[in-house]
Amino acid sequence: MSDLLLLGLIGGLTLLLLLTLLAFARYSGLLAGVAVSAGSPPFRNVTVAYKFHVGPYSETGRLFTESCSVCPRLRSIAVYYDNPHMVPPEKCRCAVGSILSEGEESPSSELLQLYQKFGFKVFSFPAPSHVVTATFPYTTALSIWLATRRVHPALDAYIKERKLCAHPRLEIYQQDQIYFMCPLARQGDFYVPEVKETERKGRGPAEASDAQMDGTGVDTLSDASSVSLEVGPGSRETSAATLSPGVSSRSWDDSDTRSEHSYSESGASGSSFEELDLEGEGPLGEPRLSPEAEPLGAPKWPRELSTPEKGEE
């Protein structure tokens, strides 16, 4: 009799544990729906402090922890430039850090100096007129794991189905939500200067080996056929030059930032903003703008992850 009672007790505890785990997973977003839409961005132009990383995305957790340690009250942000399904893990590029300010507000000099003291660089991202976006609950650490396996496939399917050019891929951690965003315009303004450096280093040897010399010793490759990675003056509307002497505000043309297997290959040319279903809400719960409310015709081109421990708000 005592053996049956013990087995019953063990069975009851096991069932209770399974129900607890199931409830925890559900609370973390296991059954949450993933709705992908196109419209206005979930935030305005922002100034961020970041560190650049080249390597497996699974190694970026330390960068999130480091940025949150500097100032836990700030929102975390990550920008992923390469598709991990197409690019070797050791070559994947991303920028991880914190959002220092949003909109017309400028970050304080004390905050800038604090992040720069710990080796972070400062850059500004604009608010593009149109983005592909999705959200996912951010209630536990498990939410991050679930989000990377549910939201990114949904974004890939949405972009591929509509043949869109949406890159790079951003994640913003704000209170109890994770915002995923893929710009449909001004993509080049989301590429930090280090991306240009990796492009230059990667293309330099290839261009040198492919250069063909004619009989007179003159390079037969014309200037028009080569890829230019020079910075285009005035290419950014949002400049962080006035914030700090160490702040970078330079950019380059979008066509120079698309690596061979970057997220820019997720879609293809031919789609227009008018074909998208612009719906949902804009920054901080504001109604999204209709297509008529913003200028259209932005240029378009043919064509998982470790994240922060939840910071204290």
TrEMBL record:
Source superkingdom: Eukaryota
Region (Disordered): 196-313
Organism per entry: Myotis brandtii (Brandt's bat)
Start-end of Basic and acidic residues biased regions: 251-263, 301-313
Compositional bias (Polar residues): 236-247
PANTHER family per the UniProt record, alphabetical: TESTIS-EXPRESSED PROTEIN 264 (PTHR15949:SF3)
Compositional bias segments (type: Low complexity): 264-273
Signal peptide interval: none
Taxonomic lineage from the root: Eukaryota, Metazoa, Chordata, Craniata, Vertebrata
One cellular-component annotation, GO: endoplasmic reticulum membrane
Protein name per Swiss-Prot or TrEMBL: Testis-expressed sequence 264 protein
GO biological process, one term: protein-DNA covalent cross-linking repair
Segments passing through the bilayer: none
